[in-house]
Design a protein that fits this description.
The chain is of the alpha+beta class. Helices cover 26% and strands 32% of the residues. Strand 8 and strand 9 form a beta hairpin.
Length: 200
């Protein structure tokens, strides 16, 4: 009888432990996920990393490597060791655009490689770690980035003002009428010559 009572107590203790464990795990992981902002972050192949790259395209990488997953560019312009290549979604000029500016170090031993200096995307699928991308309001962007007006251009809908966070290596193209981002550009931090280069 005593032996049966001890077994019953052990069984009850094990059941209680098993029931409390999942609750503890949930409590431990849920705040951690919320604190890191993981729900805002895009998948790695859609991540905008200021001063580093966008998705699978990285600054200082070889432009030739991009063609392996984007295919041939829909347009290109090259002169004096520099090139600007443009890809449109589904090769339709009315679709989202990816533009890449690259440059060769003429006279250096690696001059055969055209290295990526600047990347522009207009697709809203790409986001920063804070969840910022095309479609974001200027006020939302300013919560995470220090913006300085650097350039502008006109599109079919009106004027677009470019704002740059030179310290982080990122620029945002803001439509003046809607105050929304219509393009994101990544470049090297503190590189004014490249950051202010017009890609339109």
């Amino acid at each position: 009888m005593k032996h049966s009572f001890i077994l019953l107590l052990l069984s009850a203790s094990l059941c209680a432990c098993n029931q409390s464990t999942p609750k503890q795990n949930t409590a431990d992981t849920t705040p951690h996920t919320a604190d890191t902002g993981a729900t805002k972050t895009a998948p790695i192949d859609r991540l905008i990393a200021p001063g580093r790259g966008i998705g699978r395209i990285f600054l200082n990488g070889n432009i030739e490597d991009v063609s392996t997953f984007l295919g041939r560019p829909d347009s290109s312009d090259a002169a004096m060791g520099s090139s600007l290549m443009v890809w449109y979604a589904k090769h339709n000029a009315s679709g989202y655009k990816t533009s890449i500016f690259s440059h060769r170090n003429m006279g250096n031993k690696d001059e055969i490689i055209s290295r990526i200096q600047k990347i522009l995307i207009t697709s809203p699928e790409f986001k920063t770690a804070e969840g910022i991308g095309v479609g974001a309001l200027k006020e939302e962007i300013e919560t995470d980035y220090t913006l300085k007006p650097t350039d502008g251009y006109k599109n079919k809908d009106g004027k677009v003002q470019i704002y740059t966070d030179l310290n982080k290596g990122i620029s945002f193209e803001i439509d003046s009428a809607s105050n929304k981002c219509v393009g994101v550009v990544v470049h090297k931090p503190h590189d004014t010559a490249t950051a202010y280069l017009n890609m339109h």
